[in-house]
Amino acid sequence: MERLKQKILNEGCILSENVLKVDSFLNHQVDPFLMKEIGEEFAKRFKNQEITKVLTLESSGIAPALMTSLMLKVPLIFAKKKNPLTLKEQDVITAEVYSYTKQETNTIAVSREFLKENDQVLIIDDFLANGEAALGLIRLIEQTGAKVVGIGIVIEKSFQIGREKIEKAGYRVESLVRIQSMKNNQIQFFAKEVLQ
Ligand code: G4P
Questions:
Q1: Each residue of 162-178: pLDDT tens digit?
Q2: CB 78, CB 61: distance < 8 Å
Q3: Residue 179 is inside which H or E element, if any?
Q4: CA 100 – ligand 1 centroid, Å
Q5: SS3 assignment, position 16
Protein backbone atom coordinates (compact mmCIF):
# COMPACT_ATOMS: atom_id res chain seq x y z
CA MET A 1 0.00 0.00 0.00
CA GLU A 2 1.89 2.95 -1.38
CA ARG A 3 0.41 5.71 0.78
CA LEU A 4 1.18 3.76 3.93
CA LYS A 5 4.78 3.24 2.81
CA GLN A 6 5.17 6.95 2.17
CA LYS A 7 3.66 7.77 5.54
CA ILE A 8 6.12 5.41 7.25
CA LEU A 9 9.04 6.95 5.37
CA ASN A 10 7.95 10.53 6.04
CA GLU A 11 6.78 10.23 9.62
CA GLY A 12 8.14 6.97 11.03
CA CYS A 13 11.03 7.05 13.44
CA ILE A 14 13.44 4.14 13.73
CA LEU A 15 14.06 3.76 17.46
CA SER A 16 16.31 0.73 17.05
CA GLU A 17 16.91 -1.99 14.46
CA ASN A 18 13.73 -3.63 15.74
CA VAL A 19 11.36 -0.86 16.73
CA LEU A 20 9.56 1.64 14.50
CA LYS A 21 7.70 4.54 16.09
CA VAL A 22 4.61 5.62 14.17
CA ASP A 23 2.86 7.67 16.83
CA SER A 24 1.85 10.43 14.40
CA PHE A 25 -0.66 8.32 12.49
CA LEU A 26 -1.22 4.92 14.11
CA ASN A 27 -0.12 4.40 17.71
CA HIS A 28 -1.03 7.68 19.39
CA GLN A 29 -2.40 10.30 17.02
CA VAL A 30 -4.51 8.56 14.37
CA ASP A 31 -4.91 9.59 10.71
CA PRO A 32 -8.58 8.83 9.96
CA PHE A 33 -8.16 9.17 6.19
CA LEU A 34 -5.33 6.65 6.15
CA MET A 35 -7.38 4.37 8.43
CA LYS A 36 -10.25 4.55 5.94
CA GLU A 37 -7.94 3.46 3.11
CA ILE A 38 -6.57 0.69 5.30
CA GLY A 39 -10.11 -0.51 6.03
CA GLU A 40 -10.96 -0.49 2.32
CA GLU A 41 -7.83 -2.45 1.45
CA PHE A 42 -8.44 -5.16 4.06
CA ALA A 43 -12.09 -5.40 3.00
CA LYS A 44 -10.93 -5.87 -0.61
CA ARG A 45 -8.38 -8.54 0.29
CA PHE A 46 -10.83 -10.53 2.39
CA LYS A 47 -13.96 -10.05 0.29
CA ASN A 48 -16.20 -13.07 -0.36
CA GLN A 49 -14.96 -14.72 2.83
CA GLU A 50 -18.30 -14.35 4.59
CA ILE A 51 -16.72 -12.61 7.56
CA THR A 52 -19.16 -12.05 10.41
CA LYS A 53 -16.89 -10.34 12.96
CA VAL A 54 -13.61 -8.40 13.05
CA LEU A 55 -11.47 -9.00 16.14
CA THR A 56 -8.53 -6.94 17.39
CA LEU A 57 -6.65 -6.31 20.61
CA GLU A 58 -6.84 -3.00 22.44
CA SER A 59 -5.62 -0.35 21.94
CA SER A 60 -3.76 0.42 18.69
CA GLY A 61 -5.52 -2.27 16.67
CA ILE A 62 -8.89 -0.61 17.18
CA ALA A 63 -8.60 2.19 14.59
CA PRO A 64 -7.69 0.05 11.56
CA ALA A 65 -9.99 -2.76 12.73
CA LEU A 66 -12.95 -0.40 13.10
CA MET A 67 -12.55 0.92 9.56
CA THR A 68 -12.27 -2.65 8.27
CA SER A 69 -15.42 -3.70 10.10
CA LEU A 70 -17.22 -0.65 8.70
CA MET A 71 -16.25 -1.57 5.14
CA LEU A 72 -17.23 -5.22 5.71
CA LYS A 73 -20.44 -4.10 7.46
CA VAL A 74 -19.89 -6.36 10.45
CA PRO A 75 -19.27 -5.65 14.16
CA LEU A 76 -15.84 -5.04 15.61
CA ILE A 77 -14.82 -6.74 18.86
CA PHE A 78 -11.69 -5.67 20.69
CA ALA A 79 -10.16 -8.11 23.14
CA LYS A 80 -9.43 -6.48 26.47
CA LYS A 81 -6.08 -6.72 28.20
CA LYS A 82 -7.55 -6.57 31.68
CA ASN A 83 -10.40 -8.71 32.84
CA PRO A 84 -13.32 -6.28 32.78
CA LEU A 85 -14.98 -5.54 36.11
CA THR A 86 -18.36 -5.68 34.47
CA LEU A 87 -18.02 -9.30 33.39
CA LYS A 88 -18.13 -12.49 35.43
CA GLU A 89 -15.28 -14.94 35.01
CA GLN A 90 -17.52 -17.61 33.52
CA ASP A 91 -18.75 -15.17 30.88
CA VAL A 92 -15.35 -14.48 29.31
CA ILE A 93 -12.90 -16.43 27.20
CA THR A 94 -9.26 -15.70 27.97
CA ALA A 95 -5.81 -16.40 26.54
CA GLU A 96 -2.31 -15.57 27.71
CA VAL A 97 -0.15 -13.38 25.45
CA TYR A 98 3.54 -12.96 26.06
CA SER A 99 5.15 -9.83 24.65
CA TYR A 100 8.83 -10.18 23.76
CA THR A 101 9.04 -6.43 23.21
CA LYS A 102 7.63 -5.59 26.63
CA GLN A 103 8.72 -8.80 28.38
CA GLU A 104 5.40 -9.26 30.10
CA THR A 105 2.44 -11.56 29.89
CA ASN A 106 -1.06 -10.19 29.51
CA THR A 107 -4.31 -12.04 29.88
CA ILE A 108 -6.59 -11.04 27.03
CA ALA A 109 -10.34 -11.48 27.28
CA VAL A 110 -13.48 -11.43 25.17
CA SER A 111 -17.06 -11.88 26.32
CA ARG A 112 -18.61 -15.20 25.26
CA GLU A 113 -21.64 -13.16 24.23
CA PHE A 114 -19.93 -11.75 21.15
CA LEU A 115 -18.16 -14.75 19.64
CA LYS A 116 -20.22 -17.78 18.67
CA GLU A 117 -19.53 -21.11 17.02
CA ASN A 118 -20.89 -20.03 13.64
CA ASP A 119 -18.81 -16.83 13.44
CA GLN A 120 -16.19 -16.34 10.72
CA VAL A 121 -13.63 -14.00 12.19
CA LEU A 122 -11.05 -11.69 10.64
CA ILE A 123 -8.24 -10.64 12.99
CA ILE A 124 -6.76 -7.16 12.44
CA ASP A 125 -3.74 -5.73 14.25
CA ASP A 126 -1.42 -2.75 13.86
CA PHE A 127 1.97 -4.51 14.08
CA LEU A 128 3.18 -8.05 13.50
CA ALA A 129 6.43 -8.76 15.31
CA ASN A 130 6.68 -12.14 17.01
CA GLY A 131 3.08 -13.07 16.36
CA GLU A 132 2.13 -13.62 19.99
CA ALA A 133 -0.83 -11.22 19.95
CA ALA A 134 -2.26 -12.78 16.79
CA LEU A 135 -1.76 -16.32 18.12
CA GLY A 136 -3.45 -15.31 21.38
CA LEU A 137 -6.43 -13.95 19.44
CA ILE A 138 -6.55 -17.18 17.40
CA ARG A 139 -6.64 -19.20 20.64
CA LEU A 140 -9.50 -17.05 21.89
CA ILE A 141 -11.53 -17.54 18.72
CA GLU A 142 -10.93 -21.28 18.58
CA GLN A 143 -12.16 -21.79 22.15
CA THR A 144 -15.58 -20.68 20.92
CA GLY A 145 -15.62 -23.00 17.92
CA ALA A 146 -15.67 -20.00 15.55
CA LYS A 147 -13.48 -19.98 12.42
CA VAL A 148 -10.43 -17.77 11.86
CA VAL A 149 -10.66 -16.51 8.29
CA GLY A 150 -7.31 -14.75 8.32
CA ILE A 151 -5.07 -12.14 9.88
CA GLY A 152 -4.73 -8.60 8.49
CA ILE A 153 -1.71 -6.63 9.62
CA VAL A 154 -1.00 -2.95 8.98
CA ILE A 155 2.80 -3.08 9.42
CA GLU A 156 4.66 -6.38 9.37
CA LYS A 157 8.27 -6.57 10.51
CA SER A 158 9.21 -9.45 8.26
CA PHE A 159 12.62 -9.89 9.90
CA GLN A 160 10.83 -11.11 13.03
CA ILE A 161 9.25 -14.51 13.33
CA GLY A 162 5.52 -13.66 13.51
CA ARG A 163 4.46 -14.44 9.94
CA GLU A 164 6.32 -17.75 9.92
CA LYS A 165 4.65 -18.89 13.15
CA ILE A 166 1.16 -17.93 12.02
CA GLU A 167 1.54 -19.48 8.56
CA LYS A 168 2.98 -22.64 10.08
CA ALA A 169 -0.14 -22.84 12.23
CA GLY A 170 -2.14 -22.81 8.98
CA TYR A 171 -3.55 -19.29 8.77
CA ARG A 172 -3.54 -16.68 6.01
CA VAL A 173 -1.63 -13.46 6.77
CA GLU A 174 -2.20 -10.28 4.73
CA SER A 175 0.09 -7.38 5.58
CA LEU A 176 -0.34 -3.95 3.98
CA VAL A 177 3.35 -3.15 4.36
CA ARG A 178 6.21 -5.57 4.98
CA ILE A 179 9.45 -4.21 6.37
CA GLN A 180 12.43 -6.36 5.59
CA SER A 181 15.01 -4.45 7.57
CA MET A 182 15.55 -1.30 9.61
CA LYS A 183 19.33 -1.61 9.80
CA ASN A 184 21.59 1.43 9.37
CA ASN A 185 18.68 3.73 10.11
CA GLN A 186 17.11 2.80 6.79
CA ILE A 187 13.77 1.21 6.09
CA GLN A 188 13.89 -1.52 3.51
CA PHE A 189 10.53 -2.80 2.33
CA PHE A 190 10.06 -6.41 1.33
CA ALA A 191 9.44 -5.68 -2.33
CA LYS A 192 13.12 -4.72 -2.69
CA GLU A 193 12.38 -0.99 -2.53
CA VAL A 194 15.02 0.82 -0.50
CA LEU A 195 13.98 4.34 0.44
CA GLN A 196 15.38 6.73 2.99
P1 G4P B 1 3.80 -9.73 18.82
O2 G4P B 1 2.41 -9.63 19.35
O3 G4P B 1 3.84 -9.71 17.31
O4 G4P B 1 4.55 -10.90 19.39
O5 G4P B 1 4.54 -8.43 19.22
P6 G4P B 1 5.26 -7.99 20.55
O7 G4P B 1 4.75 -8.79 21.69
O8 G4P B 1 6.70 -7.97 20.27
O9 G4P B 1 4.65 -6.52 20.65
C10 G4P B 1 4.06 -6.02 21.81
C11 G4P B 1 3.48 -4.66 21.56
O12 G4P B 1 4.43 -3.85 20.88
C13 G4P B 1 2.24 -4.62 20.71
O14 G4P B 1 1.50 -3.49 21.08
C15 G4P B 1 2.81 -4.40 19.31
O16 G4P B 1 1.84 -3.85 18.44
C17 G4P B 1 3.89 -3.44 19.61
N18 G4P B 1 5.01 -3.43 18.66
C19 G4P B 1 5.82 -4.43 18.30
N20 G4P B 1 6.79 -4.00 17.48
C21 G4P B 1 6.56 -2.67 17.32
C22 G4P B 1 7.22 -1.64 16.57
O23 G4P B 1 8.23 -1.84 15.89
N24 G4P B 1 6.69 -0.40 16.66
C25 G4P B 1 5.57 -0.12 17.41
N26 G4P B 1 5.14 1.14 17.41
N27 G4P B 1 4.95 -1.05 18.13
C28 G4P B 1 5.43 -2.32 18.07
P29 G4P B 1 0.65 -3.38 22.39
O30 G4P B 1 1.41 -3.69 23.62
O31 G4P B 1 -0.55 -4.25 22.19
O32 G4P B 1 0.32 -1.86 22.43
P33 G4P B 1 -0.96 -1.03 22.07
O34 G4P B 1 -1.76 -1.78 21.07
O35 G4P B 1 -1.69 -0.88 23.36
O36 G4P B 1 -0.45 0.24 21.49
A1: 999 999 999 999 999 99
A2: yes
A3: strand 173-181
A4: 9
A5: coil
Q: 186: Cβ below 6 Å to ligand 1?
A: no
Q: With a 6 A CB cut-off, is 175 part of the ligand 1 pocket?
A: no
CATH of domain 35-180: 3.40.50.2020
Confirm or reject: Cβ of 20 under 6 Å from ligand 1.
yes
- By the 10 Å C-beta count (0-12 exposed, 13-18 middle, 19+ buried), 134 is classed as buried
- Residue 22 CA to ligand 1 center (angstroms) comes to 11
21 — phi, psi (to 5°)? -95, 125
Ligand 1 pocket, residue 103 CB under 6 Å? no
Question: Is the whole model's pTM more than 0.90, yes or no?
Answer: yes
93 in Cβ contact with 110 (< 8 Å): yes
Domain boundaries, the chain: 35-180
